[in-house]
Please model this.
Amino acid sequence: MMKVLITGAAGYIGSKLVGYLLKANSISLTNDTLFEVVAYDNLMYNQTSLLQYVGNPAFRFVKGDIRDISTLRKEISKVDKVVHLAAWVGAPLCDGDPKAATEINHHATASIVACLSPDQEIIYPTSNSGYGVGGEDFCTEETPLNPISVYGVSKVGGEESILSHSKSTALRLATVFGVSPRPRLDLLVNDFTWRAWKDKCLVLFESHFRRNYIHIDDVCYTIKYFLRKGGTAEVYNVGLSDANLTKKELALSIKKILPRTAIIESEIGTDPDKRDYVISNEKLENLGWSPSFSLEDGINQLIEMFPMIDTVDYKLRNS
Model:
């Protein structure tokens, strides 16, 4: 039985990952529990995304802030591995309070690493926004990082702390999309699909900016893969190699599924992260990894979800 602590467990990725690991137990061909999950979260958005797991003998919830290092140290001492997801995510949130963003994304991450014994492992799903303006060449794990925003700088600092531990893995995630028990509509694919479904119109700025994308289920699969594989202070890009798309190409992909969508280009804003890059996922693919879900799969799943949340205030736009 592998004991895993997940910080930020009630969030967009965390709440999906908890279910993914617990489901692995139920489909095991043995009587042994594969994963025992400790979900650690301060519930800053009053999430109820973990309620469905209450009563599962392999699940335990701890309410806490990752800056409360004494509580976190006690919980870390009881587990084999840590998946560190807790963070302030996104440039707008971090720009609103740079000090708190740095404390949470960088300094608290360094404190977590300091709590680990040499035998414990940690996985850190971070953002490939650290590449900043990447240019026309493929960004590999060896490409120098060039974070622009407070968010990007603080997450790069957190990654440096993680990689100082010998048994660590940093996953530079592409822009994640798809359905989760804790929905988010501020992520680019989710946002564009929502606007196309709800408003039948997409207004694009910096439409030539290019990003990479990855389905949330493939993120969970990747984390589980490295929980079993173990880490050696390595970094991996995680994304769909056939989805290095400009914003306009993404909009056109959505329009194929929602053909009544009008697409308008207007320079009404700027990306605070200046994310414009082409990502290589070859290092991960060379391990035998391959994604299971396409961009089209995710768009269709989102469209299926939208009627369920259309009349509910999840405070999705700003969280």
Confidence is low (pLDDT under 50) at residues 314-319. The chain is about 35% helix and 20% strand.
